[in-house]
Amino acid sequence: MHCYRDLVNYLSCGMILAGLWHLVHHRKTQTSYGRHMRLSSPAKTVPARLAWFLQEMPALLFPLLLMLTSHTPSSMGKYLLLGTFCIHYFQRTFVYSLMTRGSPYPLGVMVAAGLFCSVNGFLQGHYLLHCAQFDEEWSAGYRYKTGLLLFYIGMAINVHSDYILHSLRKPGEVVYKIPKGGLFEHVSGANYLGEIVEWFGYAVATWSLPALSFAVFSLCFIGPRACHHHRFYQEKFKDYPKLRKALIPFFF
Ligand SMILES: NC(=O)c1ccc[n+]([C@@H]2O[C@H](COP(=O)([O-])OP(=O)(O)OC[C@H]3O[C@@H](n4cnc5c(N)ncnc54)[C@H](OP(=O)(O)O)[C@@H]3O)[C@@H](O)[C@H]2O)c1
Hints:
Blueprint: H1 5-25, E1 45-46, H2 48-69, H3 76-99, E2 105-106, H4 107-131, H5 142-167, H6 190-206, H7 209-236
Antiparallel strand pairs: 1-2
């Protein structure tokens, strides 16, 4: 397949605009799932495990399909980068979805997230395999190494924090408790902080517009959500740790 450069640029810019749009339009309310589900608008729901499995799967399948069908010679560095993207979505699709004890998930949000994951999976895979031009020294360079290091540190924080959240509930329970341990000692949105670090690390490693767009989108989508979670905890728990911040330790 040849490189559809215009499509890559349109999709990347569209993703940044979608993130900014979300930032502006969701200052007061958050996307309606989990604790921010609006009860005034009854929606069809899907069990959380099924929803996360189905919505995240396309972001794994598209890059894998592109890798299998690509006839363009690609460097090991490109495969490592795309493999890194796939590791995240393998974890989300097969591990996160099995572990979650989340409340039922709105069907509309699941469909929208699934479409987003499809577009993003295609965009990142197509760009890396068919458009990116990394020279042989790229994977020995400091950007590549620093970016990947950031990615894996972020992923470790994200996975560990999500594990802490899952462990707060007994099977069948739908209550909110104060998360403790790991980066939750410093911020209410520890899992979101990890995810944001991951995608900015990935953007540094690939040094590409599509990866930067996804990092910006993630920041705009889950950054404000961390603030809403923080406010929720402060209102719900009188003994909520006073020094804990929303997203950035000691700062914000
Ligand atoms: N890259 C992106 O743009 C993007 C966008 C969205 C999500 N994500 C990632 O997807 C993952 C899940 O996102 P999310 O928005 O669902 O995260 P979340 O609101 O923190 O919830 C994660 C899970 O833990 C449960 N939970 C959260 N706080 C709890 C508490 N205090 N007590 C008991 N259970 C609690 C939630 O249950 P309930 O569902 O019942 O609240 C849910 O099952 C995160 O790792 C996030 O980074 C990424």
